[in-house]
Amino acid sequence: MNFFSASSPSNAAARVYLQPDFVQASLVKGNFRQICALPKYMDLNEWLAVNKFCTVHNCPNMSAGANIEYSWTDSKGKSVKLPAPQYVDYFMTWTQSILNDQSVFPTKAGIEFPPNFLVTLKAIYKHIMRVFVHMYSSHVHQIQMLNLQSHLNTLFAHLLCFGREFDLLERKDLVSVQDFVSALDALYGLNLGK
Questions:
Q1: Which of 8, 33, 147, 181 has the smallest set of CB atoms within 10 Å of its CB?
Q2: How many whole angstroms separate alpha carbon 156 and alpha carbon 86?
Q3: In angstroms, rounded to a whole number, what is the distance separating the alpha carbons of residues 129 and 125?
Q4: What is the structure's pLDDT at 27?
Q5: Least confident interval from 27-31, 126-130, 157-161, 174-178
Q6: Among the residues of 56-116, which ranges form H helices?
Q7: Whole-angstrom distance, CA of residue 157 vs CA of residue 161
Q8: Residues 137 and 168 sit within 8 Å (Cβ to Cβ)
């Protein structure tokens, strides 16, 4: 079966991700296996550790530098200190449950969004910003070593611009990287100062 053929428009429309232009879109040009391969003269364990740099051992708390530590609010409303990877895992699990909840994110026509939708979205955004701030504050050297800064910066700038445009950002969540945010704002004209 050929999903690219014009004879099956419903399949082609439903599977846009299989279109050649979509499949070939990538920030990486070249061989992914080559990028992931163990570099010559590097210890395997060291290479594996470098590619998993946010661990309970390395990041025993979810922080944004030396003076800012984030806590997670559990289902009972209690503030809990967590290692960074566990905080991120809780955030991802919590967010997925919200995205799957039809009463919060309706996917059927005619169903209204709840009155507190914006509050929920701001909460998700707050945690996304915390994850980015943690990466920039705690893992910038690993990000550079893996040559991921252009990918991360592009995504972060997009989230900043979108968050500013729709009033989803809390400046207090960006305080530890405000100088970097200002540099991105100046470079890309994100209009974050307003």
A1: 33
A2: 21
A3: 6
A4: 63
A5: 27-31
A6: 84-100
A7: 6
A8: no
Please determine, for residue 93, whether its predicted confidence score (pLDDT) is greater than 90: yes
Q: Tokens standing for 86?
A: 């566990």
Length of the chain, in residues: 194
Computed over every residue of the chain, the mean pLDDT equals: 82
> Cα 29 to the chain's mean position, in Å?
22
The closest alpha carbon to 124, from 83, 80, 170, 158, belongs to: 170
**Which string of DSSP letters, residue by residue, matches 102-116?**
TTTS--STTPPPPTT
Retrieve residue 14's tokens. Answer: 């439903």
What does the alpha-carbon distance between residue 114 and residue 102 come to, in Å, rounded to a whole number?
10
Question: What's the one-letter identity of residue 72?
Answer: W
- The alpha-helical segments, DSSP class H, found in 101-177 are 117-138, 140-145, 149-165
Residue 53: partners with Cβ closer than 8 Å, 6 or more residues away: 139, 142
Which SS3 state, helix, strand or coil, does residue 54 take? coil
- What is the residue whose two structure tokens read 């992931």? 36
CB 170 within 8 A of CB 122: yes
Give yes or no for residue 6 having a pLDDT over 50.
Answer: no
